[in-house]
């Protein structure tokens, strides 16, 4: 199980937009605690203000995610700004591509 630990956050923060590096992250949704329902995920993030960081660990141990400049919600249209991006993470993480902002 991947746990978002304090040593992991600075490694991820290297590739994030500058103002994200000083953010305080809090766990809003966890499949271990909240189950595997997408509607539960949307319900849990409904009242979160500002941007969101989504981390996903797949069954092979790979970790990937997204930086979202707006609250995640169901929409038939694209939303967010140029600060939104997707990424993958490895233990020997080297920033090769930065989010475009």
Automatic annotation (TrEMBL):
The keyword Manganese does not apply. Residues 2-101 form the TLDc domain. It holds the Pfam family TLD. InterPro entries: TLDc_dom (IPR006571). One of its GO terms (cellular component) is mitochondrion. Keywords: Mitochondrion. It is found in: Mitochondrion. Belongs to the OXR1 family. This is Oxidation resistance protein 1. It comes from Protopolystoma xenopodis.
């Amino acid at each position: 199980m991947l746990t978002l630990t304090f040593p992991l956050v600075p490694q991820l923060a290297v590739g994030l937009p500058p103002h994200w590096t000083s953010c305080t992250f809090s766990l809003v949704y966890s499949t271990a605690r909240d189950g595997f329902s997408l509607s539960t995920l949307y319900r849990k993030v409904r009242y979160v203000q500002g941007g969101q960081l989504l981390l996903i660990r797949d069954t092979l141990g790979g970790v990937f995610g997204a930086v979202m400049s707006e609250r995640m919600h169901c929409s038939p249209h694209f939303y967010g700004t140029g600060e939104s991006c997707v990424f993958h993470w490895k233990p020997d993480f080297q920033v090769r591509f930065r989010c475009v902002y």
